[in-house]
TrEMBL record, chain B:
Higher taxonomy: Bacteria, Candidatus Woykeibacteriota
Cofactor annotation comment: Binds 2 magnesium ions per tetramer.
Catalytic activity: tRNA(Phe) + L-phenylalanine + ATP = L-phenylalanyl-tRNA(Phe) + AMP + diphosphate + H(+)
The name this protein goes by in its record: Phenylalanine--tRNA ligase alpha subunit
Subcellular compartments: Cytoplasm
């Protein structure tokens, strides 16, 4: 690095400065007498995938001079002069390149300085020719490839691969190519998987005397697609798949040729053929107000110009009416700068974000009601007060969990590119996670209740043409019974003021079994409460009776009404215990309806105290309370109410027990 | 006086037999044992006024009756008896253990973040986890085959449908339905195609913040994040900022907060909303500017409670959950 820019700072200080300006330093390691920086370069900055790129950043941060190594000093072509037969069949695949032939090289191992620098950069030294191409790639950010000129037959041609063409690459692997990958062929065969890896057949080896050096600019998308298809990522492909400086190939060629003559004694025996339209500097007009408003700090045009100058942008201040613009020339290596807003980032990162004042946003946005999640908060509060513990489980689940719960997986949404078996299907119910969580605790606890709020997924589409993904609230009760689970649902709805709640017997539906009830609010189905099938549960190691519910959060919220206070009775309540035998087909809701009807306006409350079977008969012990809003009920009045209630109960077939 | 004393307990027994409910039992307790106007209290108050001859032994008798009544009452209130019979004298023996429900620490942290930003006028909502490519990528300035997609290992359901890789999908969704000024948080579940390990899970949480108005700037982004850091990590906390790159913000930054015990920790990415993103939401970038940030609540939970493995958060071991 010190070859390119002066550095006075300690390595850690330098790392910090680079990082503030946007180049993240993953690590700083001492290697021998040197310091190696491991940098993370964001995909917008291919120019920084090079030593010169980083040196340029350091120069900009410190306002220092960047010195670049010279290209080729001696352009004289040795004799005999060789023609370069190199053709690009489709210009978009390789819109610019430099190519030339170098003769009389001595392939050998590289000098120590070269090996050393490569190895510290994590690149294995191969021979002096390959090493120079890699070195110049690391130095300039421009990848290149050297072919053994004598192994190439006739004209070389860059073209798009046809599907299933085969090529043995330098690593000895035969690769089956995708449609559209860029390849180079000679008159007999494919010789290069362009931008990714050279072909074995034209490899530079210890007998190589003449090389053809090709420094290209490829279509980034073609490189990226081929790299992804083949699962092959090389340092070159990582660079080629980004938007590179279209004019960098010539300098890189010269630099490489110069180094080759230095380390392998080769000399150029062809002219350097450079193809591609020389691209000129682009200009954008940026109002200075855009920069200062976006950053929130006032800067003079001169300060902005100074910062941009350090980054090698050319600037000239212009005035249009009252507005001050800066006409900015973008250096060719900055392919990431396209819009005026990009300039604000350049100014900001070099000015120093940490120098900006910290203020809070002023004013308030228009008032809006808080959306669904406050309802979720309320739901959580109620369930926690009922001794349930909140869990978070994975929303991706596995075939085996679905199978164990008897849920057919063919109807369940799944990811197309699974990585791990456990994360493949999108949960169709929160129970996948709740049952798994129950299983995780069964060794340490024998009685507990868990709940989760989250999305479940279905294949049918919603109005936005996305799969339906409603939010649900679900709970599981290990070592419990139906009455407990139902009691929690009822209490939850009471506390949320959802009044029109109803339960209806439902047919079995995995993983629920009897007793199982559909939960209805305003007559629309919002979920289920019931027992979890024992056979399923046992697969999770849970053998205690376990119940669960799952309800739709959005419909619940819609079913809410505002709580209106009910006056507490001014006069004493009259309590009656009623003991009944009821026929098997008579539901509790019918008994309740009858009692309410019988007591009329004097009805206050009804509570089920006990449910038993006495000598084969179904028996209920109920506690009913009567009241009157205007007076204390006397014994005559109570007797009259009692008679009506009894009569009603008799009519529906319930039989009053004497005791 | 003495004879009337002897009648008190039999009368009480008769009355308590007729008592129908706890309220009536309670009435009897007040009638006989009430501190001011209970029958026994009244007698006790009169004792000093009695001639000495009658006074002798009265106290003991009243006490005996009181204890008989208490016992009878206690048998009607077994629970109360339980409490009354407590004989413990060692105050170091532990108190009763109460089992209560628990809120998951992840919820607690998300609620805390919401509360902090609510103070700055932010509201919140969530959106789809199965998202189409447009809202997760294209409208955020990430066209198909953009190299930035490499950094976000994506689960696809089909060519167009994917599991959102970030809560930034809500930026354009929200702005399409709400015109500026806008201040909103989007907490929610996101997905990455990663091998599960102590710092990665295929599904985890993210929290996005978005502000769009006519005067938004980096300075109030930094001020808000600094406010957050100090509210969440304590007054000694502060932030420092690095340049970074996200396709949907320009300029883009990464923010580290100073953790009083652990030093500088990278917790969020942020930046000024890219003008193209505003355009994609039909908002004029020449009239409005915005800023956005994204942070990982899982990581904040781990930092806050010293948890070193993200999987603990989603394993739901009650021995873990019961600590919060």
């Amino acid at each position: 690095m010190k070859d390119y820019v002066e550095i006075h700072e300690e390595p850690t200080k330098l790392a910090e400065q680079l990082q503030y300006a946007g180049t993240k330093v993953e690590s700083v390691d001492k290697v021998d007498s040197d310091t190696v920086f491991d940098l993370e370069i964001t995909p917008n900055r291919p120019d920084c995938l090079s030593v010169i790129g980083i040196a340029r950043e350091i120069a900009a941060i410190h306002n220092r001079r960047l010195s670049l190594p010279s290209g080729l000093s001696n352009f004289s072509v040795g004799s005999p002069s060789l023609p370069v037969n190199f053709v690009v069949s489709e210009k978009s695949l390789c819109p610019a390149y430099s190519v030339g032939v170098i003769d009389s090289i001595k392939v050998d191992k590289s000098p120590d300085w070269l090996r050393n620098r490569l190895e510290k950069s994590g690149v294995r030294s191969i021979n002096n020719i390959v090493d120079v191409t890699n070195y110049v790639m690391l130095e300039t950010g421009q990848p290149m490839h050297a072919f053994d000129f004598d192994k190439v037959r006739g004209t070389m041609r860059v073209r798009a691969a046809k599907k299933d063409e085969r090529l043995v690459s330098l690593d000895g692997v035969e690769r089956i190519l995708p449609d559209g990958a860029i390849v180079i062929e000679d008159e007999e065969k494919l010789i290069d998987l362009a931008g990714l890896m050279g072909g074995e057949s034209s490899e530079v080896d210890k007998n190589t005397i003449r090389i053809l050096l090709h420094v290209p600019l490829y279509d980034p998308l073609a490189i990226r697609c081929a790299s992804q298809y083949l699962g092959l990522r090389t340092q070159a492909s990582n660079i080629f798949e980004k938007k590179l400086n279209p004019n960098a190939n010539r300098y890189a060629f010269e630099r490489a040729a110069g180094l080759i003559s230095e380390v392998a004694q080769g000399n150029l025996v062809s002219s350097i053929k450079t193809v591609g339209e020389p691209t000129k500097e682009r200009y954008i007009d940026v109002p200075i107000s855009l920069i200062t408003d976006t950053l929130g700090v006032s800067l003079e045009a001169g300060e902005v110009e100074a910062i941009l100058g350090r980054l090698e942008f050319s600037t000239s201040v212009q005035r249009k009416d009252a507005a001050i613009f800066i006409k900015i020339g973008i250096p060719l290596f900055r392919t990431d700068i396209t819009d005026p807003i990009d300039i604000t980032e350049e100014v900001g990162r070099i000015y120093g974000y940490n120098k900006l004042p910290k203020k809070l946003p002023i004013g308030m946005p228009s008032a809006e009601s808080l959306p669904v999640q406050d309802f979720e908060k309320k739901v959580r509060e109620v369930l926690v007060s009922l001794n349930l513990k909140e869990i978070y489980s994975s929303s991706l689940t596995s075939t085996s969990v679905l199978e164990d719960l008897d849920i057919p997986s063919q109807n369940i949404l799944r990811v197309a590119n699974r990585l791990v078996l456990d994360y493949e299907y999108l949960r169709p119910t929160l129970l996948t996670g709740l049952v798994t969580a129950a299983a995780n605790n069964i060794d340490n606890f024998d009685r507990f209740s868990l709940f989760e709020i989250g999305c479940v997924f279905a294949k049918d589409l919603d109005k936005d043409r996305l799969p339906k993904q409603p939010k649900k609230i679900a709970a599981i009760f290990v070592t419990s019974n139906f009455s407990f689970a139902k009691g929690v649902v009822e209490e939850l709805f009471r506390r949320l003021n959802i009044t029109s709640l109803r339960f209806e017997k439902a047919p079995d539906q995995p993983p629920f079994v009897n007793p199982l009830a559909r939960v209805l609010v305003n007559n629309s189905d919002i979920g289920l409460v019931g027992k979890i099938e024992e056979e399923s549960l046992s697969k999770f190691g849970v053998t205690f009776p376990t119940f669960a519910f799952e309800l739709d959060l959005e419909t619940m919220e819609k079913g809410r009404s505002s709580l209106i206070y009910k006056p507490t009775p001014k006069y004493p309540l009259v309590k009656e215990d009623i003991s009944l035998f009821v026929p098997k087909n008579l539901s509790f809701s019918e008994v309740e309806k009858s009692i309410k009807g019988g007591a009329g306006k004097n009805f206050y409350s009804l509570e089920l105290v006990e449910e038993t079977t006495v000598s084969g008969k179904h028996s209920l012990l109920l506690r009913v309370k009567y009241f009157d809003t205007n007076k204390t009920l006397n014994s005559v009045e109570v007797e009259r109410i009692r008679e009506k209630v009894t009569e009603g109960l008799n009519n529906i077939g319930a039989e009053l027990r004497d005791s | 006086m003495e004879t009337s004393l002897d009648k008190i307990f039999p009368k009480f027994q008769e009355e308590i037999r007729q008592a129908k409910n706890s309220a009536e039992v309670e009435k009897l307790r007040v009638k006989y044992l009430g501190r001011k106007s209970g029958i026994l209290s009244k007698i006790t108050q009169q004792i000093p006024k009695l001639p000495l001859s009658q006074r002798v032994g009265m106290g003991t008798k009243v006490k005996n009756i009181k204890s008989l009544i208490e016992k009878t009452l206690a048998s009607r209130y077994p629970q109360q008896q339980e409490y009354q019979s407590e004989t413990r004298s060692d105050v170091t023996t532990p108190g009763k253990i109460f089992e209560t429900g628990r809120i998951h620490p992840l919820t607690q942290v998300i609620e805390e973040i919401k509360e902090i930003f609510h103070y700055l006028g932010f509201i919140w909502t969530d959106g789809p986890e199965v998202e189409n490519d447009a809202y997760n990528f294209q409208k955020l300035n990430i066209p198909p085959d953009h190299p930035a997609r490499d950094t976000q290992q994506t689960y696809y359901l089909s060519n167009n449908l994917l599991l959102r890789t970030h809560t930034s999908n809500m930026q354009v969704r929200y702005l399409e339905k709400h015109k500026p000024p806008v201040r909103a948080l989007f907490p929610g579940r996101v997905y990455r195609r990663d091998m599960p390990d102590s710092t990665h899970l295929p599904s985890f949480y993210q929290l996005e913040g978005l502000l769009v108005d006519e005067t938004a700037s980096m300075t109030d982004l930094l001020g808000s994040l600094d406010f957050f850091a100090r509210s969440f990590f304590g007054k000694r906390s502060k932030i420092r900022v690095y340049g970074h790159h996200f396709p949907y913000t320009e300029p883009s930054i990464e923010v580290e907060v100073f953790h009083p015990k652990k030093g500088w920790i990278e917790i969020l990415g942020a930046g000024m909303v890219h003008p193209n993103v505003l355009k994609n939401a039909q908002i004029s970038p020449s009239m409005y500017r915005g800023w956005a940030f994204g942070m990982g609540p899982d990581r904040l939970v781990m930092l806050k409670y010293g948890i070193d493995d993200i999987r603990i958060l989603y394993n739901n071991d009650l021995r873990f959950l019961n600590q919060f």
